[in-house]
Amino acid sequence: MKLARALTLAAAASAVLFAQQFKFNLDHLAAKASDTVDVSLSGPLLQLGARFLDSHDPDEAKVKKMIAGIEGIYVRHFEFKQEGAWTAGDLEGVRSQLKAPDWQRIVGWKSAEDGETAEVYLRLEGSKMTGVAILAAQPKAFTVVNIAGPVDLDALSQLGGHFGVPKVKPDTPKQKK
Amino acid sequence: MDWLEQELKSALARKEPPPEFAEGVAKALDGVLPDAASGPRRNLVAWPSRTARRWLAAAAAILLMVGGGAGYRWHQGVEAKRQVMLAFHIAGGRLNHLRTHLKEVSQ
Amino acid sequence: MTATVLEPSAQAALDFAGLMKQHQAMVFSVAYHYLHDREVAREVAQEVFLGLHRNLAAIQSPAHAGFWLRKVAVQRSIDEGRRRLRRPQVPLEDVAEPAVEAAPGDPLLGETLRKLIATLAEAPRMVMILRYQEDLDPMEISEVLEIPLATVKSHLQRSLALLREKLARRGLGER
Known about the structure:
The complex is a heterotrimer of chains A (177), B (107) and C (175). Chain B has 107 residues and is mainly α.
């Protein structure tokens, strides 16, 4: 049975979407995913969450500082048991919305060998950052993030480890030397 | 291996779990409640499966959401905070991953 | 990679209690060094062994059991760490150290290193534990964590550099 970890607060779902800066169009991936993270927080709920952050905890203090200027954070993260669940069309469906003049791609990386790709876009109004989009895909994972508002990307990158949850299969081990 | 790596091997040497560890596993396998005197963290029910825990958490969240008052608001705030941290953690993780790869390429 | 098919009598030798006794230190230590909380590590380790019991029929050999336990211990520790989404929940100075055999080297340095390891980000933290607790080489770590080999090496290099720097600032280090 698929374990869908839907975290969206249903009570707020209808109110939050206006601040999201582009559509994800990824609901079809949820049906294939073994694990799904779906976060949509903005407005009063985002501020409520921020109030509960502990300033004495280093990570929470960092996030509290980052939240101060933002209007919303939206995350869809899917993990799959098999490769091939997402397609280039899924990537393009997001990318096609992140074009000039509103959006500017600031960094991208692709490894054909590992089947991985990752891109970061900024939404700019003049010289002012008004949003961030992160698009990341690995053979068995697909992630899209939209942060509406200015955010310190250096501080953000310090928060995360960067591997997915390891899957456990009772594989026969290689003999240890 | 240099001095730091030797010290790390020493510092991270395997440690035996507390003496009551095996007994705790045996009791859980028998479906008996874990020993309540085993320390400050007390499991008040036998461990449900991971799936059951998630459904229980979801059910609790739903019950809390349909409730009212300060208690509900508090739980809503705790849940919102958890989602905030998870969202930033995922976003930060992807950025960190990208950064690492870009550094590898530039070296 | 070789698969070992056990004879029925050998299959019976997959004795759960024996496996637990053989591997409990490994499982507990992965959890403890990762989470730096003795009680939580105990709970995680117990959960790992309950999982082994449930899946014993799928285990092909004693060696396979060890591999399986390590991988699940890593996964459960990471899950628990993500669930808590915070650094150690008590001041590091107050964390009680479990009893250990007398180890070579400076005990103050060892304690400092354990605390510093616990402050690393998730990926490098687990890489360091698998390297220096479990003595896995980078390729084996890459397989356990399912991350690229180059990433494992990068984590090792950067973490060692960071630890050296932090130790130097504290006036600890190579004598």
